[in-house]
Amino acid sequence: MVMLLPPPFPTMPPFSTQIECTAYCSCGYCCNWEWGLMLPGPFYLGFSPSWIPLKFRHRKKGYLTNKKLPLISRYWSATTLNGSPYYGLTSNEKYPAQARPAILSKMSLMQYQKIPGRLILFPWQFFPRDGTIAADTNFYPFGTRMFVPGYGWGKVEDRGGAIKGPERIDLYYRSHKDALKWGRRKLQVLVVLPGQSTIDCLKVPKPVKGLLKGLGWLCHLLF
């Protein structure tokens, strides 16, 4: 198994390593948030599914200071952000997404019943999409791409308080049902650090690299 070192990140071509992959979604259970009613001053009334349904909590300012909160909003209920507004964004300030395989990839052909819908009913789903991965950015910086068998290509765009070290990542799913179905699996994952793809590691002129990247992008759209 390849063991990564903390920053500065090593220069290496894509490699495969065993990682424990856990699924999560945007629900309050997975992401530790709760609904709350804003109160006067720095307080809010939290709605909790526990045996005490209402809890008086201290409210903190969020990092999006220009964003005005509605009367009923979502708030972090754990981690160091406890009491701060929950915006539904990743640590990289992007909306999370579930992986979508290329239309002619092996994963897509294994789910052939979905292809007509992607082509006719939902044509915007023709294009592939990297899923959101939460990882320890001391080992996998933002922008690291990973291919997880059974999930597809994903990109590191989030962190997690319980994700420490290079042997754990979280994979985003749209629904809690799908996240539970995936559960937790140990798999051989292909890791591509930012700017260190196979093409980036080739010792060829930059124009040739640009051409190869363009061809690779076209192949990625289909396969």
Furnish the topology, listing elements before pairings.
Blueprint: E1 15-24, H1 28-31, E2 33-39, E3 43-47, E4 54-58, E5 72-76, H2 106-110, H3 115-121, E6 131-135, E7 145-148, E8 152-158, E9 168-172, H4 176-182, E10 184-192, H5 206-222
Parallel strand pairs: 1-9, 6-8
Antiparallel strand pairs: 1-10, 2-3, 2-5, 3-4, 6-9, 7-8, 7-10
Protein architecture, described:
The radius of gyration is 20 Å and the shape is globular. It has 223 residues and is α+β, with helices and mostly antiparallel strands. The mean pLDDT is 85. Helix content is 18%, strand content 28%. The chain has helices spanning 28-31, 106-110, 115-121, 176-182, 206-222, and strands at residues 15-24, 33-39, 43-47, 54-58, 72-76, 131-135, 145-148, 152-158, 168-172, 184-192. Strand 2 and strand 3 (43-47) form a beta hairpin. The strands form two sheets. A six-stranded mixed barrel has the order 1-9-6-8-7-10. It has a four-stranded antiparallel β-sheet with strand order 4-3-2-5. The protein contains five helices and ten strands.
Descriptive labels:
six-stranded mixed beta barrel; globular; four-stranded antiparallel β-sheet
Low-confidence stretches: none
Q: What is the alpha-carbon Rg in Å?
A: 20 Å
* Proportion of residues in helical segments: 10-25%
Continuous helix count: 5
Count of distinct strands: 10
- Hey, roughly how much beta strand do the residues contain? 25-35%
Mean pLDDT across all amino acids: 85
Walk across the major sheet and give the strand order: 1-9-6-8-7-10
What string gives the helices and strands in order?
EHEEEEHHEEEEHEH
General form: globular
Give the structural class. alpha+beta
Give the biggest beta sheet. Answer: 6 strands, mixed, barrel
Distance between the termini: 28 Å
